[in-house]
Amino acid sequence: IQVTQVVAVVGAGVVGLSTAVVIAEALPHCSVTVLADRFTPNTTSDGAAGILFASQFPGEQRRWFKRTFDHLLLIASSPEAGVAGVFLSSGWQIFREVPPEKKPYWSDCVLSFGTMTDAELKRFPQYKFGQAFTTIKCECPSYLPWLQKRLEKAGGIMIHEKVTDLAELGLRYDVIVNCSGLGSRELLGDEDVHPVRGQVLRVHAPWLQHFVRVADGHTYIYPGAGGVTLGGTRQAADSQAIFERCRRLEPSLGSARPLGEWVGLRPGRRNPRVERGHVRVHGRRVPVVHNYGHGGWGITLSWGTALDALDLVRQCLNERPPEARL
Ligand code: FAD
């Protein structure tokens, strides 16, 4: 296939790599280059618990969640599941008070959604209500290398580079896709993007098979392939406090062996920004497709927002003949 157009994707977290793969596979006449100053295992995505879960999202986010879930479910059901680090995870979300909405809008995005029985709730005497469901756990330390291989197979290239000026990229590429997460604050001057600190612990407790999440999101236990992730926090907290909260929920953690702790900064924003923009290069408009600001839900929304970004890239390329390049 003759390459006629060149696309740059800034960012190699779960959002950037998903977007690059989707574009490279759907548009074989394009050459896709990922530029990033951090690759796996050093991105924020690598430290995320990786559970697919939604809270009170407006509008588009249900669709993004559903499309990501369906994409990952196919991987989880394939021989690739182990190497990609994508598998089903069943468990409970528990509430101190019965919520006004017992069936959330995302109940049909996940599998086997139902209300917890009294027998299940008995394990958590402080809690009055619970939801049981099966979702997906997507572990980025495996998933990102797997996406990188998939990108290479589709002809994509990866370059280690800190981008300081999108307009400069406009000299070299037909379309720029900005997936720089928190980096967009500096790169674009978007002050709506802000860091939201998160901290998790990993422990060895292979007897734990079910996830447990307190509905306020402050305490969770997520079993995974290489350990159990305990969280979490949106503010500064020490690891001991997280461990104590989780042990109160799940007393068997008392004999779990610590594996490590991790602190990361979520790319917080009121809503992810998935839309077109442009930069000016010598008086010419070079299209930019933004896809950043996924907050605490970047894994959950990654494939869905990547597919929307692909549609926007297609629009840009259709409007921009290759001769328009410098
Ligand atoms: P990142 O992973 O931060 O990647 C950004 C990329 O852009 C990096 O490659 C970086 O090098 C590059 N970049 C930035 N600026 C520049 C620049 N100027 N030049 C070149 N490259 C640049 N989400 C879930 O869905 N489920 C969870 O269970 C979950 N748990 C979490 C737990 C914790 C403790 C934390 C902190 C987050 C959690 N998240 C979870 C949120 C998730 O981690 C983020 O939403 C997600 O990682 C965002 O992905 P991203 O690709 O946008 O950003």
UniProtKB/TrEMBL annotation:
Binding residue positions for D-dopa: Y220, R266, G296
Cofactor(s) for this UniProt protein: FAD
Any single GO BP term: L-aspartate catabolic process
Gene3D superfamilies xrefs: D-Amino Acid Oxidase, subunit A, domain 2 (3.30.9.10), NAD(P)-binding Rossmann-like Domain (3.40.50.720)
A molecular function GO annotation: FAD binding
PANTHER family tied to this protein: D-AMINO ACID OXIDASE, D-ASPARTATE OXIDASE
Protein name per the record: D-aspartate oxidase
Annotated organism of origin: Scleropages formosus (Asian bonytongue)
